[in-house]
Amino acid sequence: MEELLLKKRIAELRKRAEFSFQTEFTDFLNLSEIEASKTMLSGSNYMFYGGIADAERRMLCIAPEQVTISPEMFPICGIRIIPKNIKFAEEFSHRDVLGSVLGLGLERAVIGDIYVKGKEAYVLCAEHIADFLVGQLLQIRHTNVVCKIAQAEETEFTKEFQVIQRTVSANRIDAVAAAAFGVSRSSAVAAISGGKGFINGREITSPSVIVKEQDIISFRGYGKVKLKEIGGLTKKGRIAVVLERYK
Question: What is the value of pTM for the model shown?
Answer without folding.
Answer: 0.81
